[in-house]
Amino acid sequence: MSQNKQRELRLAIDIDQYEAHFANGIQIDTSYDSVVLHFIQKLPGELDLEEAPNGKLISSIVLSWPHFARITRLLNRVLDENRGRAKDAFDTNVLKGE
């Protein structure tokens, strides 16, 4: 059997602790050895106060540069494979709102 064969990933999950969150924004910080992805929920509406929060930090994920590069390739592949679906969602949710 080939040593290059990718092993199936089997995940354990504590269903009592698991939470899924919606994020509609992202900020990225970088350093010499890592990339930090900050997933954000943008809060709807306009607030009059300049200092009032308009978003909520949901999660921050720290990746090494090699892992970031691998995830970027994966995300690009998923987008390429689902370009029609992504376009339909964009057209439905963004263009019709104009």
Q: Can you describe this structure?
A:
The chain is an alpha+beta fold and 98 residues long. The chain is 29% helix and 26% strand. It contains two helices and three strands. It has a three-stranded antiparallel β-sheet. The radius of gyration is 18 Å and the shape is extended. It starts with 24 loop residues before the first strand and ends in a 5-residue tail after the last helix. The model has no long low-confidence stretch (mean pLDDT 86).
Which key phrases capture this entry?
98 residues, alpha+beta, single chain
State the distance separating the first and last CA atoms.
Answer: 55 Å
Strand order across the biggest sheet? Answer: 1-2-3
What kind of sheet is the major sheet? 3 strands, antiparallel
Radius of gyration: 18 Å
Written as H for each helix and E for each strand, in order along the chain, the element string is EEEHH
Number of E-state strands: 3
What is the averaged pLDDT score?
86
Tell me the β content. Answer: 25-35%
User: Helix amount, in percent?
Assistant: 25-40%
- The low-pLDDT segments are none
Give the structure's gist in a few sentences.
This protein is α+β, with helices and mostly antiparallel strands and 98 residues long. It has helices at 65-81, 83-93, and strands spanning 25-30, 34-42, 55-64.
What is the element layout, followed by pairings?
Blueprint lengths: L24 E6 L3 E9 L12 E10 H17 L1 H11 L5
Antiparallel strand pairs: 1-2, 2-3
